[in-house]
């Protein structure tokens, strides 16, 4: 997709579900989001298949997902090596992930993979940052 590409709104696109952050210091993230900013640490999950631990902080309807890599050669580990800590992705809910993938492929939008993968909140697919002006977009069909 070129910089002058014209997008068509995805059918079934919902609201922002969460903001994903990449970090290497678990205790610093807990101190920042729970202790300083008042978010509840609502969920912690080890995801060995992705080589990471995920922390979910919640405040009202706001969710922040913090991804802590278990190794430098995991996808998030490589992200941290290349870009450093910070925003990793924005996640939007979709009504039907299969339909969304088909629309994106038909529109020529570059995805990281055309097959959904298991995310923390349900199946997901990612729009490659090259197609979204440097921001990785996660599309989630919430369970």
Give an account of the 3D structure.
The protein is of the alpha+beta class and 143 residues long. It has one domain: 2,3-Dihydroxybiphenyl 1,2-Dioxygenase, domain 1 (Roll), CATH 3.10.180.10. Helices cover 22% and strands 38% of the residues. The chain contains three helices and eight strands. The model has no long low-confidence stretch (mean pLDDT 93).
Structure classification = alpha+beta
Number of structurally distinct domains: 1
User: How many distinct helices?
Assistant: 3
Strand content: 35-45%
The amount of helix comes to 10-25%
CATH topology: 2,3-Dihydroxybiphenyl 1,2-Dioxygenase, domain 1
**Major β-sheet strand ordering:** 2-3-4-1-5-8-7-6
Tell me, what is the CATH class? Alpha Beta
CATH architecture, by name, is Roll
Shape: globular
Q: What are the low-pLDDT stretches, counting only 5+ consecutive residues below 50? A: none
Mean pLDDT: 93
Rg over C-alpha atoms, rounded to the nearest angstrom: 15 Å
Distance between the termini: 31 Å
Q: How many strand units?
A: 8
Helix and strand run: EHEEEHEHEEE
How would a textbook summarize the main sheet? 8 strands, mixed
Name of the CATH homologous superfamily: 2,3-Dihydroxybiphenyl 1,2-Dioxygenase, domain 1
Q: Looking at the chains present, what oligomeric state does this protein adopt?
A: single chain
């Amino acid at each position: 997709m070129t910089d002058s590409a014209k997008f068509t709104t995805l059918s079934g696109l919902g609201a922002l579900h969460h903001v994903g952050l990449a970090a290497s210091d678990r205790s610093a993230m807990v101190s920042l989001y729970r202790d300083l900013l008042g978010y509840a640490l609502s969920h912690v999950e080890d995801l060995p298949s992705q080589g990471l631990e995920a922390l979910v902080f919640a405040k009202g309807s706001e969710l922040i997902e913090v991804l802590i890599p278990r190794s430098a050669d995991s996808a998030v580990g490589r992200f941290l090596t290349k870009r450093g800590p910070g925003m990793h992705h924005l996640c939007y809910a979709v009504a039907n992930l299969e339909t969304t993938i088909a629309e994106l492929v038909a529109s020529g939008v570059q995805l990281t993979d055309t097959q959904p993968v298991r995310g923390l909140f349900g199946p997901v697919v990612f729009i490659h940052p090259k197609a979204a002006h440097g921001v990785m977009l996660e599309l989630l069909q919430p369970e």
